[in-house]
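queue> pop job 88
queue> type: inverse folding (structure -> sequence)
queue> payload:
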């Protein structure tokens, strides 16, 4: 064994970085502040189905963690502090950012550029799609340049997609198969997704969740995962890394490390660096510029609902998070200056307009007869359109420490509302083209895609980590999180995070010692 790494956080980022380090022959100790919960367990699944039990209750964020409990409303039910992190209940939408997303400031004069390009990340996107087992169709319009097909074929469009696809065509806008991290075929010993649609808790492992990656890592004698073990401080002496202070039960002790990779998500990665103060770093690690914790970003979505008079073919989509068709027609360079957005759709029923159950499950739970359910299926039914928009970074949106607790402040960039207003106009035209009568627009609401807080920058004056994800001026300490994103793009963040994790792994494997400069020619992704 040449080096010992401490990886903080057992989510998808930590799992991929650890797998890369192990492949290079290094030893990895992973710290996870939350416990493990049973996954792929039929008993738990039945309890979830009958609506009685939250399988992830042990990992929800308690209010006492936050200095401003009102922020809990913003985060409640979203982040999971568990073995495997938040992908345990993610939707598995897995898109690449587009080329222009890495050059927001250069192209629009707003926000920030990434110090790396799409070309730098492209080979690692391909690796990430294999790791996350992404199903998609490379022939669809809307994808950025790519070298080859997806590892899995796309889920076919459903009957209920047809109106949406026809409506988009009438508007001259293209559609595409949703890129989903769900197994259209059995792959690498993982079950095929049976499209059961209870993806909050998948009973068979039909999609990627990071605990599956950890199961593989735990077979290695070089890997040790400690759950309910929290990193409380990264310890340096004379500017050099010593290790990580870890709290477990009533004990706090120092774990010596040659290198540390912080993979604790956008909030808690920033928190750990803010807490790691010393004489050389009074404001926390990587905070010489005062950027640490700033530029917290998220995606914002709208929900529009329209009535469809009848549904003679009894079209259904049983799982609202399992849309098979979407559009990136408004996520392109032409829409970047005003705010890009992506477009999703689904079909809903009167008995469950704002819920997450389809008519069959809802009907069974409500004790309705087969005839009553059939009548509801035949209509009138409702169409939902869901645009989701990019957000600009604001310095006042931030995480900080107050009285020893985490303070989370997020202010929505005003351009988001302009972009959503444009999206609303497009959607109203689309509802017309789909032959539906719009009845309601809900208020804009945040997603669970936290980004920013640890901005990646070429120069220490402009951010927290360098393009190799090393904390500026702190050799041997790295961050791998969507916290490093300088901008959000208009698609979900996790595939890009997985690509960054593979890229960091390649860098660390080819570096003779943590903190050494990278020779990209030494690695062949
Ligand atoms: C409901 C929901 C749906 C989503 N759907 C999608 C989607 O469809 N597509 C998409 O791209 N993204 C989606 N996301 C976002 C996605 O889940 C995240 O981008 C992803 O999980 C981030 O991975 P991570 O490894 O950075 O962090 P996490 O998954 O948050 O894991 C970090 C881990 O670090 C641990 N930790 C924190 N602090 C410490 C500490 N000090 N010491 C030790 N451990 C610590 C935490 O307990 C946690 O388990 C969704 C999120 C939610 C909540
Ligand atoms: S549709 Fe079913 S099998 Fe597929 S991921 Fe969701 S819960 Fe698992």
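queue> result:
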């Amino acid at each position: 064994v040449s080096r010992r790494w401490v990886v903080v956080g057992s989510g998808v980022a930590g799992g991929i970085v650890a797998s890369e380090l192990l492949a290079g022959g290094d030893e990895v100790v992973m710290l996870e502040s939350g416990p493990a919960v049973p996954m792929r367990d039929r008993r738990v699944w039945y309890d979830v189905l009958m609506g009685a039990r939250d399988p992830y209750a042990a990992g929800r964020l308690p209010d006492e963690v936050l200095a401003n409990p009102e922020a809990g409303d913003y985060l409640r039910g979203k982040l999971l502090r568990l073995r495997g992190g938040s992908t345990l209940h993610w939707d598995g939408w897995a898109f690449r950012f587009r080329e222009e997303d890495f050059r927001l400031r250069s192209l629009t004069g707003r926000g920030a550029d990434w110090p790396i390009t799409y070309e730098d990340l492209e080979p690692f996107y391909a690796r990430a799609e294999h790791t996350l087992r992404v199903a998609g169709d490379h022939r669809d319009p809307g994808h950025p340049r790519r070298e080859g097909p997806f590892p899995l074929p796309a889920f076919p469009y459903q009957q209920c997609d047809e109106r949406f696809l026809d409506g988009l065509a009438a508007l001259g806008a293209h559609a595409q198969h949703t890129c989903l991290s769900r197994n259209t075929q059995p792959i690498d010993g993982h079950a095929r997704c049976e499209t059961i649609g209870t993806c909050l808790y998948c009973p068979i492992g039909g999609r990627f969740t990071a605990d599956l990656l950890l199961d593989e890592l735990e077979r290695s004698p070089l890997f040790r995962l400690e759950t309910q073990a929290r990193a409380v401080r990264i310890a340096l002496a004379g500017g050099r890394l010593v290790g990580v202070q870890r709290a477990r039960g009533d004990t706090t002790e120092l774990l010596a490390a040659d290198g540390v990779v912080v993979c604790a998500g956008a909030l808690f990665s920033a928190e750990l660096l803010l807490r790691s103060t010393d004489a050389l770093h009074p404001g926390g690690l990587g905070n010489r510029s005062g950027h640490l914790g700033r530029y917290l970003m998220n995606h914002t979505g709208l929900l529009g609902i329209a009535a469809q008079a009848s549904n003679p073919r009894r079209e259904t989509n049983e799982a609202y998070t399992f849309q098979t068709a979407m559009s990136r027609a408004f996520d392109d360079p032409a829409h970047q200056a005003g705010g890009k957005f992506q477009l999703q759709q689904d079909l809903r029923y009167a008995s469950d307009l704002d819920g997450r159950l389809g008519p069959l499950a809802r009907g069974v739970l409500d004790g309705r007869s087969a005839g009553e359910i059939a009548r509801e299926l035949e209509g009138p039914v409702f169409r939902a359109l869901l645009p989701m928009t990019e957000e600009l970074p604001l310095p006042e949106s931030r995480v900080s420490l107050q009285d020893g607790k985490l303070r989370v402040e997020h202010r929505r960039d005003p351009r988001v509302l302009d972009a959503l207003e444009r999206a609303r106009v497009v959607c109203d035209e689309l509802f017309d083209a789909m032959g539906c009568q719009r009845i309601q627009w809900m208020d804009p609401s945040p997603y669970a895609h936290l980004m920013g807080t640890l901005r990646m920058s070429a120069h220490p004056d402009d951010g927290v980590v360098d393009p190799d994800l090393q904390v500026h001026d702190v050799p041997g300490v790295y961050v791998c999180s969507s916290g490093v994103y300088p901008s959000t793009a208009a698609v979900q963040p996790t595939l890009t995070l997985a690509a960054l994790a593979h890229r960091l792994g390649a860098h660390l494997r080819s570096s003779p010692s943590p903190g050494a400069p990278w020779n990209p020619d030494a690695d062949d992704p």
